[in-house]
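Entry type: protein chain
Record version: 2
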Amino acid sequence: MKKTILILGGDGYYGWPLAMKIAVLHPKEKIIIVDNEWRRNIVKSFGFQTLIPIARPAERIEAFSKVHGQGNLHYIRMDMNSERLDEIIEHEKPHTIYHLAQQCSAPYSMKGLEEALFTLHNNEAGNMRLLWAVRRHVPDAHIIKLGSFGEYAQGGIDIAEGYFFPRHKGIEATKRMPYPREADDIYHISKINDTNYVAMACRVWNLRITDVMQSTIFGILTEEMEGCEALYTRCDYDHIFGTVVNRFLTQTVYGHPLTVYGKGNQRTGLMALRDSVNSLVTFIEDVPVAGTHKVVNHVTETNFSINELAASIKEIAAEEGYDVKIIRTHDPRQEQVDTKPEYGIETEYSGHGTLHSPFSGVVKEMIGIMQRFKYNISENLFVPRIKWADDLSKVKKEASLFETVRIDDDNYWEFFREQHFQSERINLNPGTLGTTSNSVKRIRYNQHSSKNMEGYPLGSYEHGRKSHGEINKLCAELWPSPGYQLTVTHSTSQSINLIALAMLRKFNNLSKPPYKIFTTTHEHEGGIGCFHNLPEYEVHYIDDDILADRKAMAKKLKELQPDLAFFSHVYYDTGNLAPVDEWMDAVIEVVPGCKIILDAAQSLGLYDVPFGKAHVVVGSTHKWLFGPHGGGLMWMRTDFSEWIEGVFWSSHGLAYTPDVASLSIPGGQDFQMYPAIEESLKLFKQTGQKTILARSSYLRAYFQKKLNEVFTAYGIDHVFLNNEQCCPLVAIAFTDFDPYPLYKYLNEQQVHTKCIKNHLICGTMYHILRIGIPYFETTQRLNYVIFQIGRFISEKAFVENVSQ
């Protein structure tokens, strides 16, 4: 065999410092790192980042050569779970192979089916490829495989180092047998299976393998880094790839309470990174005889519970000037251990002075480094999102507490979101298209009784009429509107287009164009655009200063004598609530014959609709009602519906009632829209409009404060256009900063907002980011958005500074 050592997974948190240590101690040997960089890419795909930025592999190798004056460290980018592994082992003939190239996150393995399958395929198939390749080409090579302390079953007896003599019914085994193994997640089960494969390869194929049952590693620095940041290893603290010590220390530096899952009696073993690396490198010389499966319990701190760990970090951090609090949060793994499990651990490393750095010293060292990178911390990453199992009793209990929920109770609202609005995306653009609820999705994706109507025309109509009737009952309860006729129709923009054409037909019978429209400068093209683009209409946009002055407005109305007044209840650009009651009073007083349309697209589901004065009120179901896309609600005053004689001229709409039939959608249509709207209204009623507005307003105030801090910190001039206290919308406007690249970046991170460029308000041209906060979002998820905004701006500033 050549003088070659292979390190599979050598780009990782553990693998990189180990590779440097081996290269330094074995300068005459060729050290080859093999890694496919999956960890880098998957963390980035989740929108996370390591607390300490890490160099690219080529940059690391170059920095290592400069710092240590050695050129024996090499890098091959490849997936070890491929045929290339066999080729490399055949060509290089390594005498020692470290196997660290496995998906090592238990939460990731429990996230979903695809993640579970990837974990099994990557870990078990990759391990099997390695065993076969060694058997074929280098059967005398020493494999040092990283196992996990989490493989062991914790049944109240001391944990032996791999093998022991069990005793059952008074009879002791005649040969050493594997210590029992048990796990409650797919990652650790894959490691258990790996151990079984490894043991078989030793027994049957006569391989020599050291199986390292690794405890939780913590720490950032090893001696080989020598203060060179390009040689630093990664430091993950997120809820998928981070470890408990990293999370606690990042929370300490950030000023966030330490989050203990459940009762905190779960027990963990610990080992400092430098201790683990210094120990693991000695295994090169400690080669087991052929056919031996040697198991090592790699742990130095053996007796911590999570409660004790949190208390220790709190005490050590206090010495460094940090006031740390400890809180309990839900336990995603459901490890509700009533008391700390007591058992011993057989290991030659516990208490070994040369391989045991003082816990407090490593913690203080980590705090010092983390403080330097404090501004990379995202608070959103502290909260666990992946649950091991569903707790049905909690579902029932939480549902019964709905009416007494606190507006600021993020734990409740996270639970609510998972139950009703399950989506990884963060849609902060409900003013355009809101996120539909789970029940609406079930209907829209044909998982509902309406699927039985497919190919059955009469049944489809009847099914639609039934839901149409239920919608009318719900709306009568939610928005009492005496004197109005309600029907379900298209979204606001489409409904207004139809109304514009129907009104044009009536106006042409009564007089000659142009027909004058009195409106504001804040209207959305989707509403006012149809009037603007029909040549018979003449749209007059009235400035804010005139609308704010009752006498000036009356004068303008008298001068203009409009045929139609068009007002939005809430401005789409600023989110401000318009004083439409006062404006409608003025119109009625000065021009009694003028028709009035009230666009409630941005207010329906948030504010009480002012019925009585407007001739037509229109709203969409897919905005703040979070219902099906493309649906809408339309109220017409009885005298107006008689005047206009219908919007759909066939007079054969879905509704049976003659006076409403001409207002409802006729002919073949998407009949699933009606039960979907019905479902959205039921959830709206259950939650309550006051609760929805209060919760969204609370989140908006929180988010606007954070947003202001970010843009102020980077010296970007901005102004908030919305002035309502009780408002779900943030409209942040810029004159010199172009928010469109940020808008695009956020979309790539699955965060969705609205960007309005070159928009004139009161004589000033603005670029606007309009951000609507759904009530079911949480501060943790909003913190993720703030983190991404800060990340984009800081990287943009960095690039600009470098280019200068």
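Comment: Confidence is low (pLDDT under 50) at residues 391-404.
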